[in-house]
Amino acid sequence: QVLLSEPEEAAALYRGLSRQPALSAACLGPEVTTQYGGQYRTMHTEWTQRDLERMENIRFCRQYLVFHDGDSVVFAGPAGNSVETRGELLSRESPSGTMKAVLRKAGGTGPGEEKQFLEVWEKNRKLKSFNLSALEKHGPVYEDDCFGCLSWSHSETHLLYVAEKKRPKAESFFQTKALDVSASDDEIARLKKPDQAIKAFWAPGDAGVVFVGWWHEPFRLGIRFCTNRRSALYYVDLIGGKCELLSDDSLAVSSPRLSPDQCRIVYLQYPSLIPHHQCSQLCL
Question: Which of 18, 92, 186, 252 has CB 3.0 to 4.6 Å from 272, enough for a Cys bridge?
Answer without folding.
Answer: 252
